[in-house]
Specification:
- 5% of the residues lie in helices and 43% in strands.
- The protein is mainly β and 137 residues long.
- It has one domain.
- It has a five-stranded antiparallel β-sheet, with no helix packed on it.
């Protein structure tokens, strides 16, 4: 599984009520190796995304958003992308808040090398169902 890297601005946006992770629609953005996200990106328009013409929905389902003993955990359902034609190449899977006015970024996963899906192929974004996509302590 690829490691989660948060965008620096996520911390401030969370503190300033930009995100309601329990109810806002989260979505993924796919970026090629040549257009790597950087920690200082703040909103979706800062990323150079690939074409989604042949890609299924990128909406993420929130399974739970809760805290226990002072530790907050966001659990997201795995997202299966399906290609109806060529999709890619992409290396980075960004997570952003589609409900927020500026489509603020949350974090991204680096898969290590460019990936491409041919028609009929699937790609699963495997959010950690046990530890959560992210935790705050």
């Amino acid at each position: 599984m690829a490691a989660f890297n948060k965008f620096n601005s996520f911390v401030e946006a969370l503190a300033e009520k930009v995100h309601n992770l329990g109810s806002d629609q989260l979505k993924i953005a796919l970026c090629a190796a040549a257009n790597a996200p950087v920690a200082t990106n703040t909103k979706l328009s800062d990323l150079t995304e690939i074409s989604y013409t042949n890609c299924s929905s990128r909406n993420v389902t929130t399974t739970s958003s809760a805290q226990t003993g002072g530790v907050y955990k966001l659990v997201l359902a795995d997202l299966v992308l399906t290609a109806s034609g060529a999709v890619g190449p992409y290396r980075y899977v960004g997570l952003y808040n589609d409900t927020a006015t500026n489509k603020e970024l949350i974090g991204y996963y680096d898969y290590g090398s460019d990936l491409t899906m041919a028609s009929g192929n699937t790609f699963t974004v495997d959010f950690d169902g046990t530890a959560g996509a992210l935790t705050l302590a």
